[in-house]
Amino acid sequence: MNSNKKKYSQEIIAGLTTFFTMSYIVIVNPQVMASPGTGLTVSGTLTATVLISFIMSFLAGIYIKLPYALAPGMGLNVFIAYSLIIGEKIPWPTALGVIFWSSFIFILISIFPIRQKIVEALPNNMKHAMSCGIGLFLAFIGLKNLGLIVANPATYISLGDVNLPIALGLLGFLIIFILFNKHKSYSFLFSIFFISALGVFFGLIKLPETYFSYPDFNSHFFKLDLIGSLKWSFIPVILSVLLTNLFDSLSSLIGLSNSAGFIDKNGNPLRLKETLMVDSIASLFSSLFGTSPATVFIESSTGIQAGGRTGLTAIVAALCFLPCLFIAPIVSAIPAFATAPILIFVGILMCKTLKNIQATSLDDIIPIFLTIILMPLTFSITQGVLWGIVSYVILKVCVGKAKKISSVLWILTIICFLALVTEHSTFIEYLNNLKS
Protein backbone atom coordinates (compact mmCIF):
# COMPACT_ATOMS: atom_id res chain seq x y z
CA MET A 1 0.00 0.00 0.00
CA ASN A 2 2.80 2.38 0.94
CA SER A 3 4.53 1.72 -2.38
CA ASN A 4 1.29 2.51 -4.22
CA LYS A 5 0.87 5.76 -2.28
CA LYS A 6 4.44 6.69 -3.10
CA LYS A 7 3.84 5.89 -6.75
CA TYR A 8 0.69 8.02 -6.91
CA SER A 9 2.29 10.93 -5.06
CA GLN A 10 5.25 10.77 -7.44
CA GLU A 11 2.92 10.93 -10.45
CA ILE A 12 1.01 13.87 -8.93
CA ILE A 13 4.24 15.79 -8.28
CA ALA A 14 5.35 15.03 -11.82
CA GLY A 15 2.02 16.33 -13.17
CA LEU A 16 2.36 19.56 -11.20
CA THR A 17 5.92 19.95 -12.47
CA THR A 18 4.80 19.49 -16.07
CA PHE A 19 2.02 22.06 -15.63
CA PHE A 20 4.25 24.75 -14.13
CA THR A 21 6.81 24.20 -16.88
CA MET A 22 4.32 24.62 -19.72
CA SER A 23 1.81 26.97 -18.06
CA TYR A 24 3.46 29.96 -19.74
CA ILE A 25 1.55 28.96 -22.90
CA VAL A 26 -1.68 30.17 -21.24
CA ILE A 27 -0.22 33.69 -21.29
CA VAL A 28 2.00 33.67 -24.37
CA ASN A 29 -0.30 31.91 -26.85
CA PRO A 30 -3.25 34.36 -26.47
CA GLN A 31 -0.88 37.31 -26.82
CA VAL A 32 0.72 35.86 -29.96
CA MET A 33 -2.59 34.89 -31.58
CA ALA A 34 -4.25 38.20 -30.65
CA SER A 35 -1.37 40.31 -31.98
CA PRO A 36 -2.47 43.56 -33.68
CA GLY A 37 -3.69 42.74 -37.17
CA THR A 38 -4.98 39.21 -36.56
CA GLY A 39 -8.49 40.16 -35.46
CA LEU A 40 -8.45 37.52 -32.73
CA THR A 41 -9.14 38.34 -29.08
CA VAL A 42 -7.07 37.53 -26.00
CA SER A 43 -10.10 36.26 -24.08
CA GLY A 44 -11.28 33.98 -26.88
CA THR A 45 -7.82 32.57 -27.54
CA LEU A 46 -7.16 32.06 -23.84
CA THR A 47 -10.39 30.07 -23.46
CA ALA A 48 -9.48 27.94 -26.48
CA THR A 49 -5.90 27.45 -25.24
CA VAL A 50 -6.96 26.32 -21.78
CA LEU A 51 -9.71 23.98 -22.99
CA ILE A 52 -7.49 22.36 -25.61
CA SER A 53 -4.68 21.89 -23.07
CA PHE A 54 -7.10 20.39 -20.54
CA ILE A 55 -9.08 18.10 -22.85
CA MET A 56 -6.19 16.78 -24.90
CA SER A 57 -3.76 16.28 -22.01
CA PHE A 58 -6.54 14.40 -20.20
CA LEU A 59 -7.20 12.31 -23.31
CA ALA A 60 -3.48 11.61 -23.66
CA GLY A 61 -3.34 10.35 -20.08
CA ILE A 62 -6.25 7.98 -20.64
CA TYR A 63 -5.52 6.80 -24.20
CA ILE A 64 -1.74 7.01 -24.61
CA LYS A 65 -1.14 6.18 -20.92
CA LEU A 66 2.18 7.99 -20.94
CA PRO A 67 3.17 11.30 -19.23
CA TYR A 68 2.68 13.44 -22.35
CA ALA A 69 0.83 16.77 -21.99
CA LEU A 70 -0.47 18.74 -24.98
CA ALA A 71 -1.09 22.44 -25.66
CA PRO A 72 -0.97 24.88 -28.63
CA GLY A 73 2.59 24.74 -29.86
CA MET A 74 5.13 27.55 -29.91
CA GLY A 75 6.25 28.16 -33.47
CA LEU A 76 2.95 26.95 -34.86
CA ASN A 77 1.15 29.86 -33.18
CA VAL A 78 3.63 32.38 -34.62
CA PHE A 79 3.24 30.72 -38.03
CA ILE A 80 -0.54 31.07 -37.96
CA ALA A 81 -0.65 34.59 -36.51
CA TYR A 82 2.25 36.32 -38.23
CA SER A 83 2.83 34.31 -41.40
CA LEU A 84 -0.69 33.39 -42.49
CA ILE A 85 -3.02 35.99 -40.96
CA ILE A 86 -0.77 39.08 -40.87
CA GLY A 87 1.82 38.25 -43.54
CA GLU A 88 -0.39 36.66 -46.21
CA LYS A 89 -3.50 38.57 -45.07
CA ILE A 90 -5.61 35.42 -44.68
CA PRO A 91 -8.71 36.17 -42.54
CA TRP A 92 -8.51 34.36 -39.21
CA PRO A 93 -11.65 32.22 -39.84
CA THR A 94 -10.01 31.02 -43.08
CA ALA A 95 -6.72 30.37 -41.28
CA LEU A 96 -8.61 28.23 -38.75
CA GLY A 97 -10.13 26.38 -41.70
CA VAL A 98 -6.62 25.73 -43.02
CA ILE A 99 -5.68 24.25 -39.63
CA PHE A 100 -8.82 22.07 -39.74
CA TRP A 101 -8.03 20.57 -43.16
CA SER A 102 -4.35 20.06 -42.39
CA SER A 103 -5.37 18.31 -39.15
CA PHE A 104 -7.90 16.19 -41.04
CA ILE A 105 -5.12 15.04 -43.37
CA PHE A 106 -2.90 14.51 -40.31
CA ILE A 107 -5.52 12.14 -38.88
CA LEU A 108 -5.67 10.20 -42.14
CA ILE A 109 -1.92 9.79 -42.41
CA SER A 110 -1.80 8.77 -38.76
CA ILE A 111 -4.26 5.96 -39.50
CA PHE A 112 -2.59 4.81 -42.73
CA PRO A 113 1.14 4.35 -43.45
CA ILE A 114 1.26 7.60 -45.47
CA ARG A 115 2.76 9.39 -42.48
CA GLN A 116 5.84 7.20 -42.54
CA LYS A 117 6.32 7.74 -46.28
CA ILE A 118 6.16 11.53 -45.94
CA VAL A 119 8.64 11.47 -43.06
CA GLU A 120 11.01 9.22 -44.99
CA ALA A 121 10.68 11.30 -48.18
CA LEU A 122 12.25 14.45 -46.73
CA PRO A 123 16.00 14.36 -46.06
CA ASN A 124 17.01 14.64 -42.41
CA ASN A 125 18.97 17.81 -43.17
CA MET A 126 15.80 19.48 -44.45
CA LYS A 127 13.87 18.50 -41.32
CA HIS A 128 16.53 20.04 -39.08
CA ALA A 129 16.68 23.12 -41.32
CA MET A 130 12.91 23.61 -40.97
CA SER A 131 13.18 23.49 -37.19
CA CYS A 132 16.05 25.97 -37.20
CA GLY A 133 14.24 28.30 -39.61
CA ILE A 134 11.15 28.31 -37.41
CA GLY A 135 13.41 29.05 -34.43
CA LEU A 136 14.93 32.08 -36.18
CA PHE A 137 11.46 33.27 -37.17
CA LEU A 138 10.27 32.89 -33.58
CA ALA A 139 13.28 34.76 -32.20
CA PHE A 140 12.85 37.50 -34.81
CA ILE A 141 9.22 38.01 -33.73
CA GLY A 142 10.34 38.16 -30.10
CA LEU A 143 13.03 40.77 -30.86
CA LYS A 144 10.50 42.78 -32.86
CA ASN A 145 7.85 42.64 -30.12
CA LEU A 146 10.43 43.66 -27.56
CA GLY A 147 11.39 46.68 -29.67
CA LEU A 148 15.04 45.70 -29.86
CA ILE A 149 14.69 45.44 -33.66
CA VAL A 150 12.75 48.15 -35.52
CA ALA A 151 12.01 49.05 -39.14
CA ASN A 152 14.47 51.31 -40.91
CA PRO A 153 13.86 52.73 -44.43
CA ALA A 154 17.58 52.81 -45.22
CA THR A 155 18.71 49.44 -43.84
CA TYR A 156 15.30 47.66 -43.67
CA ILE A 157 15.82 46.88 -39.98
CA SER A 158 18.04 48.35 -37.28
CA LEU A 159 18.60 48.30 -33.53
CA GLY A 160 15.95 50.16 -31.54
CA ASP A 161 16.72 52.63 -28.78
CA VAL A 162 17.24 50.74 -25.53
CA ASN A 163 14.62 52.12 -23.16
CA LEU A 164 13.20 50.89 -19.86
CA PRO A 165 10.76 48.31 -21.35
CA ILE A 166 13.56 46.83 -23.49
CA ALA A 167 15.90 46.75 -20.48
CA LEU A 168 13.25 44.88 -18.49
CA GLY A 169 12.80 42.44 -21.38
CA LEU A 170 16.53 41.76 -21.48
CA LEU A 171 16.46 41.22 -17.73
CA GLY A 172 13.61 38.74 -18.25
CA PHE A 173 15.73 36.86 -20.81
CA LEU A 174 18.61 36.70 -18.33
CA ILE A 175 16.27 35.38 -15.61
CA ILE A 176 14.98 32.68 -17.96
CA PHE A 177 18.54 31.67 -18.87
CA ILE A 178 19.67 31.39 -15.24
CA LEU A 179 16.62 29.42 -14.06
CA PHE A 180 16.46 27.24 -17.19
CA ASN A 181 20.15 26.44 -16.84
CA LYS A 182 19.40 25.28 -13.28
CA HIS A 183 16.57 23.08 -14.61
CA LYS A 184 13.86 25.03 -12.78
CA SER A 185 10.41 24.14 -14.07
CA TYR A 186 9.04 27.61 -13.37
CA SER A 187 11.68 29.57 -15.33
CA PHE A 188 9.33 30.99 -18.00
CA LEU A 189 6.43 31.67 -15.64
CA PHE A 190 8.60 33.31 -12.98
CA SER A 191 10.16 35.63 -15.56
CA ILE A 192 6.74 36.73 -16.86
CA PHE A 193 5.37 37.62 -13.43
CA PHE A 194 8.60 39.14 -12.10
CA ILE A 195 9.05 41.44 -15.12
CA SER A 196 5.33 42.32 -15.08
CA ALA A 197 5.62 43.24 -11.39
CA LEU A 198 8.55 45.52 -12.22
CA GLY A 199 6.45 47.01 -15.01
CA VAL A 200 3.74 47.85 -12.48
CA PHE A 201 6.34 49.32 -10.10
CA PHE A 202 7.73 51.62 -12.80
CA GLY A 203 4.29 52.63 -14.00
CA LEU A 204 4.57 50.87 -17.38
CA ILE A 205 1.56 48.60 -16.79
CA LYS A 206 -1.97 49.58 -15.93
CA LEU A 207 -3.61 47.04 -13.66
CA PRO A 208 -6.96 45.68 -14.87
CA GLU A 209 -10.16 46.86 -13.21
CA THR A 210 -11.10 43.24 -12.56
CA TYR A 211 -8.80 40.23 -12.29
CA PHE A 212 -11.21 37.45 -13.25
CA SER A 213 -13.82 36.92 -15.93
CA TYR A 214 -16.00 34.20 -17.38
CA PRO A 215 -14.66 32.08 -20.26
CA ASP A 216 -15.22 33.54 -23.73
CA PHE A 217 -17.12 31.04 -25.87
CA ASN A 218 -18.44 33.64 -28.32
CA SER A 219 -15.43 35.16 -30.06
CA HIS A 220 -13.87 32.17 -31.85
CA PHE A 221 -15.70 28.95 -31.06
CA PHE A 222 -16.74 27.18 -34.28
CA LYS A 223 -16.17 30.36 -36.32
CA LEU A 224 -13.78 28.72 -38.80
CA ASP A 225 -14.35 29.03 -42.57
CA LEU A 226 -14.22 25.48 -43.92
CA ILE A 227 -15.31 26.32 -47.49
CA GLY A 228 -13.17 29.42 -47.98
CA SER A 229 -10.05 27.55 -46.88
CA LEU A 230 -10.44 24.91 -49.61
CA LYS A 231 -9.20 27.13 -52.45
CA TRP A 232 -6.39 25.79 -54.64
CA SER A 233 -4.13 28.63 -53.49
CA PHE A 234 -4.37 27.35 -49.91
CA ILE A 235 -3.20 23.81 -50.72
CA PRO A 236 0.51 24.61 -50.18
CA VAL A 237 -0.41 26.45 -46.98
CA ILE A 238 -2.35 23.41 -45.75
CA LEU A 239 0.62 21.23 -46.69
CA SER A 240 3.03 23.56 -44.87
CA VAL A 241 0.93 23.51 -41.68
CA LEU A 242 0.70 19.72 -41.97
CA LEU A 243 4.45 19.22 -42.38
CA THR A 244 5.33 21.72 -39.65
CA ASN A 245 2.90 20.06 -37.24
CA LEU A 246 4.06 16.58 -38.18
CA PHE A 247 7.78 17.24 -37.74
CA ASP A 248 7.19 19.23 -34.56
CA SER A 249 5.27 16.29 -33.11
CA LEU A 250 7.81 13.70 -34.20
CA SER A 251 10.81 15.65 -32.90
CA SER A 252 9.13 16.15 -29.52
CA LEU A 253 8.16 12.48 -29.30
CA ILE A 254 11.59 11.23 -30.23
CA GLY A 255 13.20 13.49 -27.64
CA LEU A 256 10.73 12.58 -24.90
CA SER A 257 10.76 8.85 -25.56
CA ASN A 258 14.55 8.65 -25.63
CA SER A 259 14.99 10.68 -22.45
CA ALA A 260 12.48 8.53 -20.56
CA GLY A 261 13.33 5.18 -22.11
CA PHE A 262 9.88 4.89 -23.71
CA ILE A 263 11.21 3.07 -26.78
CA ASP A 264 10.75 -0.39 -28.24
CA LYS A 265 13.44 -2.89 -29.20
CA ASN A 266 13.89 -1.14 -32.58
CA GLY A 267 14.47 2.24 -30.97
CA ASN A 268 11.07 3.66 -32.00
CA PRO A 269 8.87 5.62 -29.56
CA LEU A 270 6.33 3.53 -27.66
CA ARG A 271 2.68 3.98 -28.66
CA LEU A 272 3.71 6.23 -31.53
CA LYS A 273 0.52 5.68 -33.52
CA GLU A 274 -1.69 6.46 -30.51
CA THR A 275 0.32 9.57 -29.66
CA LEU A 276 0.19 10.96 -33.19
CA MET A 277 -3.54 10.23 -33.32
CA VAL A 278 -4.18 12.28 -30.17
CA ASP A 279 -1.85 14.96 -31.49
CA SER A 280 -3.74 15.23 -34.79
CA ILE A 281 -7.14 15.25 -33.05
CA ALA A 282 -5.86 18.01 -30.76
CA SER A 283 -4.91 20.10 -33.81
CA LEU A 284 -8.34 19.60 -35.33
CA PHE A 285 -10.14 20.66 -32.15
CA SER A 286 -7.80 23.65 -31.90
CA SER A 287 -9.25 24.94 -35.17
CA LEU A 288 -12.79 24.38 -33.90
CA PHE A 289 -12.13 26.23 -30.65
CA GLY A 290 -10.19 29.07 -32.29
CA THR A 291 -6.45 28.77 -31.72
CA SER A 292 -3.23 27.43 -33.25
CA PRO A 293 -2.57 23.66 -33.57
CA ALA A 294 -1.93 21.79 -30.33
CA THR A 295 0.92 19.33 -30.04
CA VAL A 296 2.80 17.22 -27.52
CA PHE A 297 4.87 19.62 -25.41
CA ILE A 298 8.58 18.96 -25.07
CA GLU A 299 8.23 20.46 -21.58
CA SER A 300 6.63 17.16 -20.59
CA SER A 301 10.23 16.02 -20.11
CA THR A 302 10.36 17.91 -16.80
CA GLY A 303 7.52 15.80 -15.46
CA ILE A 304 9.28 12.68 -16.67
CA GLN A 305 12.45 13.78 -14.88
CA ALA A 306 10.33 14.30 -11.74
CA GLY A 307 9.27 10.66 -11.84
CA GLY A 308 6.26 10.65 -14.16
CA ARG A 309 5.86 7.31 -15.90
CA THR A 310 2.14 6.90 -16.56
CA GLY A 311 -0.86 8.78 -17.91
CA LEU A 312 -1.70 9.98 -14.40
CA THR A 313 0.99 12.64 -14.81
CA ALA A 314 -0.76 14.01 -17.91
CA ILE A 315 -4.16 13.91 -16.18
CA VAL A 316 -2.88 15.92 -13.20
CA ALA A 317 -1.33 18.49 -15.54
CA ALA A 318 -4.62 18.68 -17.46
CA LEU A 319 -6.67 19.39 -14.33
CA CYS A 320 -4.32 22.22 -13.36
CA PHE A 321 -5.27 24.12 -16.53
CA LEU A 322 -8.97 24.49 -15.65
CA PRO A 323 -8.66 27.42 -13.19
CA CYS A 324 -6.84 29.36 -15.92
CA LEU A 325 -10.14 29.77 -17.78
CA PHE A 326 -10.99 32.77 -15.59
CA ILE A 327 -7.83 34.93 -15.80
CA ALA A 328 -8.28 36.69 -19.18
CA PRO A 329 -8.05 40.22 -17.64
CA ILE A 330 -4.72 39.34 -16.02
CA VAL A 331 -3.34 37.95 -19.28
CA SER A 332 -4.47 41.06 -21.18
CA ALA A 333 -2.54 43.29 -18.76
CA ILE A 334 0.78 41.46 -19.21
CA PRO A 335 3.00 43.52 -21.57
CA ALA A 336 4.93 42.37 -24.62
CA PHE A 337 8.29 43.05 -22.94
CA ALA A 338 7.43 40.34 -20.38
CA THR A 339 6.55 37.65 -22.95
CA ALA A 340 8.93 38.52 -25.81
CA PRO A 341 11.96 37.00 -23.99
CA ILE A 342 10.21 33.61 -24.07
CA LEU A 343 9.76 33.80 -27.85
CA ILE A 344 13.46 34.63 -28.23
CA PHE A 345 14.59 31.90 -25.84
CA VAL A 346 12.40 29.17 -27.37
CA GLY A 347 13.59 30.24 -30.82
CA ILE A 348 17.19 29.79 -29.72
CA LEU A 349 16.39 26.34 -28.33
CA MET A 350 14.86 25.33 -31.68
CA CYS A 351 18.05 26.40 -33.46
CA LYS A 352 19.99 23.71 -31.58
CA THR A 353 19.04 21.34 -34.43
CA LEU A 354 21.83 22.99 -36.45
CA LYS A 355 24.25 20.58 -34.82
CA ASN A 356 22.44 17.68 -36.52
CA ILE A 357 22.85 19.07 -40.04
CA GLN A 358 25.53 17.24 -42.00
CA ALA A 359 26.12 18.78 -45.41
CA THR A 360 29.28 19.29 -47.47
CA SER A 361 28.04 19.60 -51.07
CA LEU A 362 26.33 22.71 -52.42
CA ASP A 363 23.29 20.77 -53.64
CA ASP A 364 22.61 20.06 -49.95
CA ILE A 365 23.81 23.35 -48.47
CA ILE A 366 21.79 25.68 -50.73
CA PRO A 367 18.35 24.16 -49.96
CA ILE A 368 19.21 24.16 -46.25
CA PHE A 369 20.25 27.81 -46.45
CA LEU A 370 17.09 28.84 -48.33
CA THR A 371 14.86 26.97 -45.89
CA ILE A 372 16.43 28.66 -42.88
CA ILE A 373 16.94 32.19 -44.20
CA LEU A 374 13.65 32.69 -46.05
CA MET A 375 11.44 31.97 -43.05
CA PRO A 376 12.41 35.11 -41.10
CA LEU A 377 13.16 37.25 -44.17
CA THR A 378 9.81 36.60 -45.89
CA PHE A 379 7.93 36.47 -42.59
CA SER A 380 6.60 33.10 -43.77
CA ILE A 381 7.41 29.55 -42.73
CA THR A 382 5.56 28.40 -45.85
CA GLN A 383 8.05 30.13 -48.16
CA GLY A 384 10.98 28.51 -46.42
CA VAL A 385 9.42 25.07 -46.86
CA LEU A 386 8.42 25.67 -50.50
CA TRP A 387 11.77 27.04 -51.67
CA GLY A 388 13.71 24.48 -49.67
CA ILE A 389 11.93 21.47 -51.15
CA VAL A 390 11.84 22.78 -54.74
CA SER A 391 15.50 23.85 -54.74
CA TYR A 392 16.57 20.52 -53.23
CA VAL A 393 14.99 18.50 -56.04
CA ILE A 394 16.10 20.86 -58.85
CA LEU A 395 19.71 20.89 -57.67
CA LYS A 396 19.81 17.11 -57.21
CA VAL A 397 18.62 16.72 -60.81
CA CYS A 398 21.24 19.21 -62.02
CA VAL A 399 24.11 17.24 -60.45
CA GLY A 400 22.82 13.86 -61.64
CA LYS A 401 21.41 12.62 -58.33
CA ALA A 402 17.78 12.30 -59.43
CA LYS A 403 17.73 8.66 -58.30
CA LYS A 404 17.91 9.84 -54.69
CA ILE A 405 14.51 11.53 -55.03
CA SER A 406 11.58 9.33 -54.02
CA SER A 407 8.21 9.37 -55.76
CA VAL A 408 6.62 10.95 -52.68
CA LEU A 409 9.16 13.78 -52.71
CA TRP A 410 8.50 14.32 -56.42
CA ILE A 411 4.79 14.74 -55.66
CA LEU A 412 5.53 17.18 -52.81
CA THR A 413 7.88 19.12 -55.08
CA ILE A 414 5.32 19.45 -57.87
CA ILE A 415 2.75 20.78 -55.37
CA CYS A 416 5.28 23.25 -53.96
CA PHE A 417 6.39 24.39 -57.43
CA LEU A 418 2.81 25.00 -58.56
CA ALA A 419 2.22 27.00 -55.40
CA LEU A 420 5.23 29.22 -56.10
CA VAL A 421 4.19 29.75 -59.72
CA THR A 422 0.55 30.54 -58.96
CA GLU A 423 1.11 32.70 -55.87
CA HIS A 424 4.42 34.46 -56.36
CA SER A 425 4.96 34.70 -60.10
CA THR A 426 3.78 37.01 -62.89
CA PHE A 427 4.17 34.28 -65.52
CA ILE A 428 0.50 33.35 -65.52
CA GLU A 429 -0.53 37.02 -65.71
CA TYR A 430 1.94 37.47 -68.58
CA LEU A 431 0.51 34.48 -70.48
CA ASN A 432 -3.03 35.72 -69.95
CA ASN A 433 -2.04 39.11 -71.36
CA LEU A 434 -0.57 37.42 -74.41
CA LYS A 435 -3.79 35.51 -75.00
CA SER A 436 -5.87 38.65 -74.73
UniProtKB/TrEMBL annotation:
It comes from the Bacteria. The keyword Ion transport does not apply. InterPro entries: Azg-like, NCS2. It is found in: Endomembrane system. It is a multi-pass membrane protein. GO terms for cellular component: endomembrane system; plasma membrane. Keywords: Membrane, Transmembrane, Transmembrane helix, Transport. The chain crosses the membrane at residues 12-32, 38-59, 66-86, 92-114, 134-156, 162-180, 187-205, 234-256, 276-298, 310-328, 365-395, 407-428. Its main location: membrane. GO terms for molecular function: purine nucleobase transmembrane transporter activity. The keyword Nuclease does not apply. Belongs to the nucleobase:cation symporter-2 (NCS2) (TC 2.A.40) family. Azg-like subfamily. This is NCS2 family permease. It comes from Fluviispira multicolorata.
